[in-house]
Amino acid sequence: MIDPWSSKILEYNEIMENFGIKPFKEILDKIEDPHWLMRRGIIFGHRDYERILTAINEGKDFAIVTGMMPSGRMHIGHKMIVDQLVWYDEHGAEIYIPIADMESYSARDIDFEESRELAIKEYISSYIALGLDLTQDNIHVYLQSENLLVEDLAYIFAKKVNFNELRAIYGFTGSTNMAHVYVPLIQAADILHPQLEEYGGPRPTLVPVGPDQDPHIRLTRDIASRLQKRYGFILPSSTYHRFMRGLTGGKMSSSKPATAIFLTDTPDEIEWKVKNAKTGGRETLEEQKRLGGVPEDCIVYEILLYHMIGSDKELERVYRDCRNGTLMCGECKNNVADYMRRFFEKFSKKRKRAEKIAESILDRVHP
Amino acid sequence: MIDPWSSKILEYNEIMENFGIKPFKEILDKIEDPHWLMRRGIIFGHRDYERILTAINEGKDFAIVTGMMPSGRMHIGHKMIVDQLVWYDEHGAEIYIPIADMESYSARDIDFEESRELAIKEYISSYIALGLDLTQDNIHVYLQSENLLVEDLAYIFAKKVNFNELRAIYGFTGSTNMAHVYVPLIQAADILHPQLEEYGGPRPTLVPVGPDQDPHIRLTRDIASRLQKRYGFILPSSTYHRFMRGLTGGKMSSSKPATAIFLTDTPDEIEWKVKNAKTGGRETLEEQKRLGGVPEDCIVYEILLYHMIGSDKELERVYRDCRNGTLMCGECKNNVADYMRRFFEKFSKKRKRAEKIAESILDRVHP
Predict the structure, then answer these.
(1) Has residue A2 been placed in a domain?
(2) Closest residue in chain B to residue A102, using alpha carbons only
(3) What ipTM goes with this model?
(4) How many domains, chain B?
(5) What is the DSSP secondary structure assignment for residue A297, as one 8-state letter?
(6) Contact state of A159 with B105 under an 8 Å Cβ cutoff
(7) Where is the motif ('HIGH' region) (chains A, B) (predicted)?
């Protein structure tokens, strides 16, 4: 297997087969200038992406919806969503970014005021600094708890769903709190509200998610079809991306600082984290020179794959040099740490400038 | 039993004992000028009314909350609530009138737009014509679906409640739709939101209900105590009123026109309904002259008791004349039909004048 983008993709094939998600690579060549996350198979699956493709290729109206969950700090894994949004913005999307403060309250006990603060300071500033101009008219950022229309729509959907169904999908029990039980309905409203007439809908809508979020997509599509007659909903499309692993090899998690590079880490912290990350190196230098490294097992390589190198050619060179034993982990880490330091120095300046704008984003009035 | 206000009160005693509702008559003499519905035992029970009494007697801030459910037509049974509101308005209450359009949607499949129309045309106009000036600053009429703060509060409450609890209280099953399951939380928010700081709370709050609504009161009080620390809620007080029976002797219901006098019936229809109502008359004229009538069994008498005669003295006279066989049903019905005709002729004119004001009530902005 000499595929520079192949790391750990196998487990996802099973997910796709079980739930009717189609491989993204089958439609890849119909996209004129695919995003690197598409080209590298990080976006590995989809449902009904054809509708989005048609809209892009024919310059027609479409929406993309992707929420931010204001809990803890934004890490480099979250950057992937913003990178996609920048691409879709360039391709004509109407962009909706719900801030899941209602979910944050029910799941993490963070109240609405705290969520608002956190969203502005931690997420909105970073989104802007990552290149998404949230002041544009086609971009709609809102707090769930401040969006009456979304809350009303969630309630309208609630009539079409019962507890048995939610229990079967999410494993809720009789002692799950009702706010938690209600979350999927709010998410369905987040996803479908851009299709309401007052928002210029119905129209194709895309939701980029991790495979763990697919139950939400399936439920939302079911709700959309149950109310299709009344609202003319087009079943939402979705893409599925795999997740960058944590620096220590397990899951990247905001609640475990050692596993993640946070967007607000200092350059020194970032350098330290890169240099201590799990690699695909061998037991001894001699062995590595003889056998080459294993980029598929290397988190440092994943940083490049997901985030730091836009050019496939350049990335392939790193991959090859690692595999054939010319590029050792020490040198590679130095290079990546350098990349990262430069990136984050620039980013941190942009973030500083974005802070003022960030504060006004949630006060904008949307249709 | 020679009590002119005694009809069918016994069944309610059991309700009181089972659920810890206290008899209203025990505090009656502490009210300076009790409403006729209080004096006549139609308001028969309460929880924590002492708090409201203190507020009234000391001229302190308190709130009253009572919803209207926009489904079908407003009938004379609903008038009782407005009569109470007029009295509480005169006694310094801040008045909140939620229009239960979310409940109407989940229970009757009436959508929000239709509810709004219905509320304005059928209820708000009548409330005004019955003497409650909804344009006053201390009166807050709103649609649940348009009140973001109430919806958010319902969600905050939802975290403190689970499905098992709602099932135990309301008999919901796994196939009850989730909008229906969620209604009690919205109602709790209707009741408790006047106690939020932004509304000038916490403060004593009264909810006048029929005994069938007591589960809502108990749940709301439970929620209030679970969140007391955060919001400083004072457990809401409640009063319980019995219901006027339907004209045919059973339950008065909007969906059975023969059982109810609607506020928009024509004077001729009303006269006809009064004259055909079930009375407490005997089998024969001779028997009735000898034994007297039974006002306790008479719907025509209930009309007077609940609605048409404010003076206890005058009502007592009717009661006595019926019991001792001097007042026959025919004559009595003629009198009541006359009362009613005069009342509804005036009411209908007021209602006409109120229609224009009614349209603007829901557009008012509240704090």
Answers:
(1) no
(2) B155
(3) 0.92
(4) 2
(5) G
(6) yes
(7) 70-78
Rounded to whole angstroms, what are the CA distances from A293 to A9, A199, A274? 19, 52, 17
CB contact, 8 Å: B231 with chain A?
no
- Contact flag A181-B174 (C-beta cutoff 8 Å): no
pLDDT tens for each residue of A181-235: 999 999 999 999 999 999 999 999 999 999 889 999 999 999 999 999 999 999 9
Tell me, yes or no, whether A218 and A267 share the same domain: no
Q: Is the pLDDT of residue B11 over 70?
A: no
* pLDDT digit string, tens, across residues B73-88: 899 989 999 999 999 9
Q: Could you tell me if B192 and B326 lie in one domain?
A: no
In a domain? residue A330: yes
> Which among B151, B173, B185 has CB closest to A151?
B151
Å from B172 to nearest chain A CA? 10
CA A253 vs CA A74, A75, A244, A257, A336: distances in Å: 10, 8, 11, 7, 21
A229 and A319 in a single domain? The answer is no
Residue B179 sits at the chain A interface (C-beta within 8 Å) = yes
Q: Which domain holds residue A297?
A: 257-350
> Would you give the distance in Å from CA A172 to the centre of its chain?
25
Give residues 133 to 152 of A whose Cβ lies within 8 Å of B: 145-146, 148, 151-152
Q: What is the CATH number of the domain that holds A144?
A: 3.40.50.620
B164, B173, B179 ranked by CB distance to A158: nearest: B179
Long-range contact list for A27-32, CB < 8 A, 24+ apart? Answer: A27/A53, A30/A57, A31/A56, A32/A57
Average the pLDDT over B173-186 and give the result: 97
- The answer to whether B70 touches B122, Cβ cutoff 8 Å, is yes
pLDDT band at A3 (very low <50, low <70, confident <90, very high): low
Residues of chain A contacting residue B152, judged by C-beta atoms under 8 Å apart: 112, 145, 151
Residue at A361 is within a domain: no
Find the CATH number of the domain harbouring B290. 1.10.240.10
Mutation target for B interface from A115, A153, A155: give the one with most B CBs within 10 A.
A155
What average pLDDT does the structure give for chain A?
A: 92
Residue at A19 is within a domain: yes
Give the range among A15-19, A38-42, A241-245, B333-337 with minimum mean pLDDT: A15-19
pLDDT at B1: 39
Please tell me whether residues A67 and A191 are part of one structural domain.
Answer: yes
